[in-house]
Specification:
alpha/beta; six-stranded mixed sheet; four-stranded antiparallel sheet; 19 helices; 67% helix; elongated
């Protein structure tokens, strides 16, 4: 995460910061006034001024109640600030995820990404939400040191000295604890990842009877995590106790000096209670600083992990210019993937708008790479990709989503109902039902226990495979983009549904650009296919109609014979 990104998040929550700061200031003022009025009450009792002492105790009680009331308001302002910070960070994280390449996202394990989106954004939100009160507490500590100088110069210097010593200790040991926490965090991610792997691999563990091996590996990982977690907590605890112990020593010295001054008549008895109370506050303050340092350590680690997510994300500024999209596609010398072993090796071709096209070739020839680039899942290293003569990178995300939609070979769904999954693309339920009937899956859906309200598994494994792909096709057809992509979809569909969809696409080619990836012979031989693009060895080997390629291209004829 860049400093600019962070500043924008904080700026959006300015009003919540102001509310939290005002509440925090009032709380600390009340906490400073409470012991003062208590001490005044004691002094008045010592003097025999009982009416005045009652007045002081009443003021003490009033400020105590105001403090309690302000604390209630303060909690509300804290959670308002925290929740709005978290939602702003999360919104930015979602934006960066969706504007990232699949290659960049592939660097994350499921647990690492989950921790970023939940724990790391929460860490940042809590840090900045509590930073306000920490700043006010530091202001309070400065006031206390100054106040002690007004009581007696020796007490003032003692308090200043111990404050600086404790602060030095915290600053000195903070980097050491930070390094320990970094090690703990890395092992935490590894531990969570291992638990997820354990559940996903349970069938293999049972099938190969390798429980003992998996257990040993798991326990070794857990032992490593526990070791660093214990070290972190012990180091923090020891630092806390040493700091507070030193503070207690100087508190004792200050109280001795205070008592001596009371005996000599230079201080009142009530001031002793203020010294004790304010030293207790200094102890609480140093605990707050330790907590702040701990939070800062976690924030640094979180920022590093978040930076990894944001590192290659693109920023797509929404453009207002509207374009009348025709759907003409061009690839010009496109190099994609590892330069030494590319997925597409300087590929060039064009696809006319309002046409039906098929990309074919053996497995591993780079066919899906074309879809990855058109959908901007990743970016090419060299060359240009254009739609209607305009480079793909110059379209904003909203425009691209309206122009191009795809059915992938492994479609996934949201864990919501069939109806809700499809309503994202068309809110008119009647249109959804009519399309389901056209594809001949309506009766199947209605036969499910909850019909269209059936909750889908993310991978669609709780419904028939044919219906799963039909639903994925429905999403694209309901969205009505100008360019439709189908990644080997028809290789997984039954003949009945394939024919229904192909007949729909045959009609749609009058207004849409349609691009299929397929190795099915019966699709390649369709007489309404305008162009077939043959890929081999990551390059375009031939383009033309089925009959043209059969007559003139040996590679295509060889492929057809293999199918």
């Amino acid at each position: 995460m860049t400093k600019k990104d962070n500043r924008e998040v904080l700026k959006k929550n300015t009003k919540y910061f102001i509310s939290k700061f005002i509440c925090s200031v009032f709380i600390r003022i009340f906490l400073l006034l409470i012991p003062i009025y208590y001490s005044y009450g004691i002094d008045e009792v010592a003097k025999g001024n009982y009416d005045a002492s009652i007045h002081m105790i009443i003021m003490f009680f009033v400020f105590f109640m105001l403090y309690r009331l302000t604390e209630i308001i303060n909690q509300k302002t804290y959670y308002s600030l925290y929740s709005n910070l978290y939602k702003t960070y999360l919104d930015l994280g979602l934006y960066k995820t969706c504007n990232n390449s699949l290659y960049s996202l592939s660097r994350f394990s499921l647990s690492e990404y989950s921790n970023i989106m939940s724990e790391d954004f929460e860490t940042l939100s809590d840090y900045y939400a509590t930073l306000v009160i920490r700043v006010v507490e530091i202001m309070e500590a400065i006031y206390i040191v100054i106040y002690f100088f007004t009581i007696h110069i020796t007490i003032g210097y003692l308090t200043l000295f111990i404050s600086l010593v404790v602060l030095f200790l915290l600053l000195y040991f903070n980097p050491i604890i930070a390094n320990t926490n970094k090690e703990r965090k890395q092992r935490h991610d590894k531990r969570i990842s291992l638990f997820q792997e354990l559940l996903l691999s349970i069938t293999e563990i049972k099938g190969f009877n390798i429980y003992s091996i998996v257990r040993d590996r798991t326990m070794n990982t857990v032992d490593d995590y526990v070791k660093w977690n214990n070290k972190l907590n012990i180091d923090k605890y020891n630092l806390k106790q040493v700091s507070l112990g030193l503070l207690n020593v100087f508190e004792f010295l200050s109280l001795l000096i205070g008592i001596k001054l009371v005996i000599s008549g230079k201080l009142t008895l009530g001031v002793i209670t203020i010294i004790y109370s304010y030293y207790t506050k200094l102890g609480d303050l140093f605990l707050s600083i330790i907590t702040l340092f701990e939070s800062n350590i976690n924030v640094k680690i979180s920022r590093l992990r978040i930076h990894k997510l944001f590192q290659y994300a693109t920023f797509s500024e929404e453009k207002t210019k509207k374009r009348n999209i025709k759907g003409f596609i061009e690839f010009k010398n496109v190099l994609y993937g590892d330069r030494n072993n590319p997925i597409l090796d300087k590929v060039s071709f064009s696809i006319n708008n309002n046409s039906f096209n098929v990309i074919t070739g053996l497995s591993g020839s780079g066919k899906s790479g074309i879809f990855d680039l058109l959908l901007r899942y990743n970016r090419q290293h060299e060359g240009k990709i254009l739609i209607d003569g305009i480079e793909l990178k110059d379209y904003d995300n909203k425009q691209i989503s309206n122009i191009i939609s795809a059915v992938r070979r492994d479609p996934t769904f949201f864990h919501i109902s069939i109806k809700d999954n499809l309503s994202i693309f068309d809110s008119n339920f009647e249109n959804i039902v009519n399309l389901a009937k056209e594809l001949n899956i309506h009766d199947y859906i209605m036969a499910l226990s909850d019909g269209y309200n059936t909750i889908l598994d993310a991978d669609g494994s709780n419904i028939n495979s044919d219906v799963k792909f039909a639903l994925a096709i429905m999403r694209v057809l309901l969205k009505r983009p100008k360019i439709l992509l189908f990644d080997e979809t028809f290789d997984f569909l039954s003949r009945d549904i394939s024919l229904k969809v192909l007949n729909m696409l045959k009609q749609m080619r009058r207004d849409n650009t349609i691009l299929l990836i397929s190795k099915k012979k019966e699709i390649l031989e369709l007489d309404y296919i305008d162009q077939i693009i043959l890929l081999d060895n990551h390059q375009v080997m031939a383009m033309g109609s089925h009959n043209e390629l059969i007559d003139n291209n040996k590679n295509y004829k060889k492929l057809i014979n293999k199918l």
